[in-house]
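ESCALATION

Customer reports they have been waiting on this structure for their group meeting. Please prioritize. Original submission:
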Amino acid sequence: MATTHLLTPPRLHLFSPSSAARLRASASLAHPLLHSRLRLAARPSPRPRRRAMSTTVRSSLIDPDGGALVEIVAAPDRRAALRAEAEQLPRVRMSLVDLQWAHVLAEGWASPLRGFMREDEYLQSLHFNCIRLPDGGGLVNMSLPIVLAIGDADKEQIGDKPDVALEGPDGGVVAILRSVEVYPHNKEERIARIWGTTAPGLPYVDEAIASAGNWLIGGDLEVLEPIKYNDGLDHYRLSPRQLRNEFDKRGADAVFAFQLRNPVHNGHALLMNDTRRRLLEMGYKNPILLLHPLGGFTKADDVPLPVRMEQHSKVLEDGVLDPETTIVSIFPSPMHYAGPTEVQWHAKARINAGANFYIVGRDPAGMGHPTEKRDLYNPDHGKKVLSMAPGLEKLNILPFKVAAYDTVAKEMAFFDPSRSQDFLFISGTKMRTFAKNGENPPDGFMCPGGWKVLVDYYNSLQAEEAVPAPAPV
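Update from on-call: job pushed to the front of the queue and completed.
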């Protein structure tokens, strides 16, 4: 299908007005399709931070970076020939995290990238958080390098051969990397520039960089067939093209994306529902929520993806979010926990999926310092960086309003400083502690069905820990 390129409204000023098998595709996708196309030209909006554009918009879809989605999965009639070709090429084995990045590239989340970065792209990303389009086409945001590391033996095997076959963790051929370029992998520089520290204990560094090879290999990627994980959740891994088609089928005139890697509590739901209300007040007729949990690598103490997806299904089943105006889909990217640097990537990828509004909260993509008792990043810097980041001008940034548990109303509500004593802040750590100990949070913190999913998960962990190890033979 040909790409539909539609314009976006001018960027808005940063504003803040007063079990996996049961996860049903019908909860987020099966619904009456809306065929009307809405005109937004006369819609009032807050004063733009940047120069306004004169536009007429027919739906939520905005141009992907570079003007077209880069989709690099081979057509079915080419796959047999590619497999035969791969048999004659040197091979590089990818880790699971590498495979997740190949998935990101294959579907166009990182458009206009056509493969793992060559050195010039890597240096631009690492030092400028952007890459230049060819022929003076401007800049696009690219705050995280998407690279593939190889070892000395791989480099020697490749030699001066132009093309390389990439294997998945199971040894099957996933893709061919063409016109390759091999260059040094300075891990310390990469880590320092992305995270702002080289302190030990950074989860992504420990998982994907520390033991990686001393070389990076870039080139144009040709993926043999759509990447699947066969975990019962593949039908939720909608590509940017599929999401754009779905937004268009629903007649969305605005799409607001919510990035998360945690269970949804009623404070999150309050924020998402309030965002829809605000968009309706601005004159939009059919804003659609993209609830977009991160599906790649996460750190060990995060709730696993299948559990999160089941919890999200309960949020829809219990009516906390409206299935008719919500699309739940898995974002395949791994997680860096790199704060203001990473949040730019999260926003940029959603542009390529067609979202024109992005919700950003306190300390997005952040974490505690790995060796000190403090936040690794200033909690407010993520939203400030997004409001200024080169290459993200066409995206409207919607900052969180702070939500907490109102002990008087006995529900999650937006924090009121005039009666701060009435509010209880329940951190993710405290929430996990409640669930691990079998304690119930205050009524109104999370829908009962969603809470039960978490309690069952932590009970299963405790049951596994209680099983004695087999005696040595």
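Sent to customer with the following note: The chain has 14 helices and 15 strands.
Escalation resolved.
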